[in-house]
Amino acid sequence: MDKEKQLVIPLDGLIILKDNSTRLFIKYKFVILTLVLGVLLYQLVENQIITDLQFFVSAFKILTTYILP
């Protein structure tokens, strides 16, 4: 097989890309972790507020339908 027809994969470029992405993650890991924790906390709070609102709405319906009249 001729050398000209062989497929050459440039591993140097892939290694440099991996090193750069690792450096970026290490450099911005606190920002990334802060964003992830913020979104997680927001989701937890939002779901809790929705659950509480549904509880208050159902309690208000029960109160106005059965107890007050």
The gist of it:
With 69 residues, the protein is mainly α. The protein contains two helices and no strands.
Word description of this protein:
It is a single chain. The longest helix is centred in the last third of the chain and has 39 residues, at 29-67. It is rod-shaped, with a radius of gyration of 28 Å. It is mainly α. The chain has a domain at 39-69. It has 2 helices and no strands. It has helices spanning 11-27, 29-67. The mean pLDDT is 77.
β content, as a range?
Answer: under 5%
- How many helices? The count is 2
User: Biggest sheet, open or closed, and with what strands and sense?
Assistant: none
Query: Taking all residues together, what is the mean pLDDT?
Result: 77
Helicity level: over 70%
- List unreliable stretches of 5+ residues: none
Q: How would you sum up the global shape?
A: rod-shaped
**Class inferred from helices and paired strands:** mainly alpha
Order of helices and strands: HH
- The count of β-strands is 0
Distance between the termini: 94 Å
Q: Tell me the radius of gyration.
A: 28 Å
Keywords: Membrane, Transmembrane, Transmembrane helix
Transmembrane segments: 24-43
